[in-house]
Amino acid sequence: MRKKAPKCRRKECKSKKNNFSPYGGIFDIAGKKASLAGLEPRLNDPNLWSDPEQARKLTQEASRLRRVISSFETLENDIEGLAELYEIATEDEMAELDEEQKRIQLELDLLYRETLFAGEHDERPAIVTIKPGAGGTESSDWAGMLLRMYRRFAERQGFKVELLDVMANDAAPGAIDYAQFIVRGERAYGLLKVESGVHRLVRVSPFDAQNRRHTSFASLDVMPEIDDDIKIELDPKDLRVDVYRSSGPGGQSVNTTDSAVRIVYKGGAPEEIVVTCQDGKSQIKNREKAMTVLRSRLWEREERKRREEQMQARGEQKAIEWGSQIRSYVLDKQYIKDHRSGDMRHDPDNVLDGDIEDLIFSGLEWQVQQVAA
């Protein structure tokens, strides 16, 4: 059963014995204090910054641990104080205390979500790639709907979206055959990584003259942006760089100069890795962005290989989770179901408009439990 954030109900607040002790197990405050204590000698090492990347990771982790511990202890005091006030409050004062209870509950929920971000690259920008499955215009239209959904989600979060490459399908407005973009913002990769996989759409097709029900698929791939801080071995002999005229939007000079860049990498595996960028009119900047995506693709490939080896060592035969069908959007019956957590929504218009935060966090909860299992 999926864990839920702890509840701070009035009857629990009235009892000091029960008011907060069960929550410590969920947040593992003792474990976090031990981890922070273990980091302190390394943080105080005068040579810490001789390795900037390692120093950055250590200071980020220490900051995260201190934030969770401090928030927990503050909430612990708040709940104990609220319990005492409930015991002596008059009926006229109960409404005010109930509002305070709601505030504490919100803080508990936020703190609980904080514990779901422990990945090494959660703070990095996310590189998102969308591809339609087989099905022609129907699937390309679905891929375009997903592109809009995630761009709207990013806007709701106050994130910045950089569109690296998009191949429009002229058969329908908004339909695409491919899209890749970078999402920049606080924990962009930590949030979006759980969205990797196959997304399934069921609806009465607007492209079917007989109004038949169609099922379409599109895949989403999410990887962290890997920059020069992480060493990825690249032999220049394995690279082929092509330049060509951009076919996407971006102004007159974008479409009349050879600003788009395609990099083909042939090293390290039988299959080639091809990355493209036609985001702007600068060929140099497009090449830099394409190299960033290539480094990220190579990192992701090594991570996939490592996960497969771990599964084989444990004797597991199930499919890698990032590549499986994760969610169905059934528009004619007005529901959306996440196949991992089992969560359902009955407001598809809002979801397709980017209101997917609760689905993302239920997926993160599921993911944490899979790792712990």
Gyration radius from CA atoms, angstroms = 24 Å
- What is the molecular shape? globular
Major beta sheet, specifics?
A: 8 strands, mixed
Number of helices: 11
Specify the CATH architecture of the largest domain.
2-Layer Sandwich
Helix content: 40-55%
Tell me which oligomeric state these chains represent: single chain
Q: Measure the end-to-end span.
A: 12 Å
Count up the domains. 3
* H and E order: HHHHHEHEEHEEEHEEHEEEHH
Output mean pLDDT.
83
The CATH class of the largest domain turns out to be Alpha Beta
Tell me what the structure shows.
The chain has 373 residues and is of the alpha+beta class. The chain folds into 3 domains: 10-114, Methane Monooxygenase Hydroxylase, Chain G, domain 1; 126-229 and 321-372, 2-Layer Sandwich (Alpha-Beta Plaits); 236-313, Double Stranded RNA Binding Domain, CATH 3.30.160. The chain has 11 helices and 11 strands. Strands 2-3-1-5-4-9-10-11 form an 8-stranded mixed beta sheet, sandwiched between helices. The protein has a 3-stranded antiparallel beta sheet with strand order 6-7-8, with helices on one face. Strand 10 (335-338) and strand 11 form a beta hairpin. The longest helix is centred in the N-terminal third of the chain and has 37 residues, at 52-88. The chain is globular. It starts with 9 loop residues before the first helix and ends with a helix.
